[in-house]
Amino acid sequence: MTRTVDQTHDPGLTSWVDSANRPEGDFPIQNLPFAVFRRAGSGERFRCGVAIGEQVLDLAALGAARPFEGLAARALSACAEPALNPLMELGGEAWRALRQGLSQVLREGSAHAAHAAGALVPQSHVELALPARIGDYTDFYTSIHHATAVGRLFRPDQPLLPNYKWVPIAYHGRTSSIGVSGQPVRRPHGQLKAPGAERPRLAPTERLDYELEVGVLIGAGNRAGEPIPLGQAEEHVFGLCLLNDWSARDVQAWEYQPLGPFLAKNFATTISPWVVTLEALAPFRSPWSRPSADPQPLPYLEGAEIRSAGAIDLALAVWLETAAMRARGVPAQRLSRSNFRDSYWSIAQMVAHHTVNGCNLRPGDLFGSGTQSGAGSGEAGSLLELTAGGRQPLELTGGETRTFLADGDRVILRGECQRQGFARIGFGEAAAIVLPAA
Ligand code: MN
What we know:
With about 450 residues, the protein is α+β, with helices and mostly antiparallel strands.
């Protein structure tokens, strides 16, 4: 693995930014995730920032004081741009040099503290944009528990198709409708065909669902015709975010054969604004394994690096806040939990497979992991699974029930990494409210 645990992960490190030292916070000095922001309502140019406690460190403002030299200085100057693409393009050595520099600037006792304090903006005062110009978006299907549960609903005779255990399955998604957390999602219209009906009708979806996914943002790309080998795959990955692949299940059921999802999924995708780097995730790696009774991967998808540390122990959760909960002042309710560690395919395998035919990836490309569901009944990453295809309504606090999402529902995805001997880091959230159909 190219990412190693170093002094930036030392759990004893503290920051001169007080809010970064609270153990329950998502953004301690060991995390340092990137986003694109400006002061809310200011009309300023967007630029890159790094989260520290409840503040954003403005990297364009920090860069003006030229605190670094060499590669770290080059990486910092790329952060004055209104997207992370220029930083992503510089590659892993530059990302690591910048992380080392930022960790030095933000730690207790830093000589740069006085200047950097002037470059802090409270997160409560900022507007966050998409972190990158996303050129292409590919959504994978890496949870075998999700694939089996959904397959059972759509095709009871053959839940898991025979290619699943050999191919990291994916479809090419739509980039134009990717939004950042906080942007509302409008209930889409589509062709719906009831089971006994003779013909479909055009109507607002009656089966609006979320999908709990991890987003993978590509850093440096590859040239067309030059596959990325598994052993180098993670060097092309900048970092991770949370991703909600909103889905209209009734539209999906009618349209998905023979070419896969189309209008059921291209109307909206929500991602979290903060990109947690693979450097920050180094302490939370886990072995990747494959049950011995299953086919083992073809050689281009197999390697010692993924066997020892190809998975990431990232705890995921979905929360729901209904309009009634908001009106009563009741907090959001957790619907399910799962862990990215249980994914059937690893990030490196997704990258190696995506490029094995020579397909070129570019900085800022986005992969979705596919819905992350665990083996247990409370670990399903979509309502489709949690309600057995809408047959078993969920009971919510306050007497409400849900099969699929109602207008006014706000869906919140959260993620966090915890391991004995390391500081807990969080992903913030990917949240959006459902608006009624137009
Ligand atoms: Mn999906």
